[in-house]
Specification:
The structure holds two protein chains of two kinds. By secondary structure, chain A is of the alpha/beta class. Helices cover about 35% and strands about 20% of the residues of chain A. Chain A has one domain: Rossmann fold, CATH 3.40.50.300. Chain A has a seven-stranded parallel sheet with strand order 4-3-5-2-6-7-8, sandwiched between helices. Chain B is elongated. The chains are: A alpha/beta, B alpha+beta. The structure holds guanosine-5'-triphosphate, magnesium ion and zinc ion. The site of zinc ion (ZN) has 8 residues of chain B, from loops.
Amino acid sequence: MTENRIKIVEKILDANDRLANENRRRLDAAAIYSINLMASPGAGKTSFILSTINALLSEDIQIGVIEGDTAPVTIDSDKINAAGMPAVQVNTGGECHMDAVMVENALDQLPLTNLDLVVVENVGNLICPAAFNLGTHSNVLIASVPEGDDKPYKYPNIYRGLDVLIINKIDLLPYIDFDMEYFQKGVEMLNPGLKTFAVSCKTDEGLDDWIDWLRSRLPNR
Amino acid sequence: MHELSVTESVLEIACRHAENAQASQVTDIHLVIGHLSSIIDESVIFYWNIISKDTLCEGAELHFIRVPAILVCLNCNNEYKLEGELTPCPNCNSAKIRVVSGDEFHLDSIEIQR
Ligand SMILES: Nc1nc2c(ncn2[C@@H]2O[C@H](COP(=O)(O)OP(=O)(O)OP(=O)(O)O)[C@@H](O)[C@H]2O)c(=O)[nH]1
Ligand SMILES: [Mg+2]
Ligand SMILES: [Zn+2]
């Protein structure tokens, strides 16, 4: 019997990354832009998707939504369907994040040839989704005002991987002690120059700039 | 965080390499985990003992090699270690910083018997 040490050096989430690359190829082949939308529970992910759908309604832009929840509920996907867009509900079975396999399976259930945009509403959580690449074109985080201004300091990893930051519920700024300068200083340390939109899904303030940015990303537009 | 899926990935990688090396058993597994990758060792070990049963990795011991989070200030080049919350450069207070290490998250090596 011989003892041996074998050098491996393989990223622990390598299998997920490989599948994520396949998801990306599939989305690209269908000329679809895709977003991994992350936030803590209740930050306004579904509201933001609905606002985006409404803003683009008159332009015949088709948006497919993948709704991740840790429980077998259809609350969020029902809302998307009611807004006239296709949605797939994914039950993560208690897992705290979506991974590339779940997105692969969900893509099978979406009418990809008709879509311009796919939005994945990740599980409400600021820690785990940051570690799992889904293959989407951009990582977008919604930080909402009532969560407080210290979140970049407490959840640095999720901010580091972002392409876009949405500050939501700015209609509540008069009622909440939220130091915008302190918040943005934390963001700047983690992700210098991060593209940021301050919006309210209640009053629609600030949404136009986001829609302009999004429109510029869509292939064939 | 998601310790179960992490543990499953570790098992898959270790078993695959052990099979390729025609091992009869894996005795030790060395993981390199950066300080910024928040993984709880105890939960990984807890899941490990359950899911490694009846595999080449049953009974293998997990070793966690921790890599500290090191930041560098882009203003004054000062390198500093991050222990707790994110802070600007302690030397010049600049917020222009870059992460040098702490993101590591890989399986470094396994020890096997043939
Ligand atoms: N005042 C105010 N309320 C908002 C805004 N956006 C969302 N809300 C409210 O915040 C609550 C949560 O919104 P959702 O869109 O369900 O949040 P979510 O992030 O999808 O929640 P989960 O999917 O459960 O994690 C709802 O009561 C929304 O009406 C906003 O801009 N201003
Ligand atoms: Mg929701
Ligand atoms: Zn400095």
